Amino acid sequence: MENKTGKYFKYAIGEIVLVVIGILIALQINNWNEQRKEIAQEQKILLQLKLDFNKNLEQLDEKISMRSDITEASIKLLGFIDNPEFVELDSIIFQLSFLLTDPTFDPVENNLIESGNLHLIRNDSLKLKLTNWSTDVYQLQEIELEYQKIRTEIIIPFNEKTGLYRNIINALWKDGYIPKFALNKTAIVKHKIGNTKKQLNISEVLNNIEFEGIVADSFNWSHIGNIQSLALRNQIIEILNLIDSEIKE
């Protein structure tokens, strides 16, 4: 009886060991399958992120170019103010048209944090940059909002009050206008609304202290905006490089 009990005990232990091993193998297979699914999902997310951030880079470059136009136009206008001799109205009008542009960066939404999928990104450096992305963009957009306010509340009303606005709009459209932010960059649209028939005094415009402040303010905010934009551009490049390092061919 003792012999049989010992055999049964050993047999029972063996059965338990086999069951435990089976459970462990099943768990290991399940974990491996889950990990494989997460890696596949991560790759899908990385490919979408690459597409999104390439679009962000393209759009941001457009905004940088627009702000560069504003800063260059502002410098030329300040030069006209300091040296008004032989300055023509058309030159002032042409440079003022750049100050009416509204460069605002509106990147593709990154909802990784909201969706709870950020944990799928295994690269910690990439994960950190994606976490900080919204904050970095917001810092630039705060500056853009300041220039929007200046443009809407000061620049446009000043041009309307001095009678320059119609001439500026006519200069934009008469030879064909394609904004840098246009979706269709091949469509050249021409319209001629003509210049104002009112008498415009160049000297009054150039000697107007408000005009000088407007031009200086335009330079200031556009230049600050581009400093932030170039820093953000570097962030995008770093993010794209990290994404590429994680994408499996």
UniProtKB/TrEMBL annotation:
It comes from the Bacteria. Keywords: Membrane, Transmembrane, Transmembrane helix. The chain crosses the membrane at residues 12-29. InterPro entries: DUF6090. This is Uncharacterized protein. It comes from Maribacter arcticus.
